[in-house]
Amino acid sequence: MGKGINVTTVFESVHAGNERYESEIQSWRQQVKDQFREANGWLTLIGLCWLHEGENTIGSDLIRDVLLLESAPQRVGMIDFHMIG
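The chain above was modelled as a monomer; its predicted structure follows.
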């Protein structure tokens, strides 16, 4: 009788490869979630304000360039922004 392919072995090998792949994907997803939740991750971002060239004032006062929550001081400070190059 000739040699044949053991179908069971092939399916077991494919299944083991899929489990390894799925485990790698789950590990990657957890790593991304953890990075998002770090102190300097994207989930800690509470606002996105584009700075303009020169002085940008920061505070809760409506005249500020970078507006903070009402609970913040009216004037927190200033960022002096200049493009390089």
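The first strand starts at residue 54 and ends at 59.
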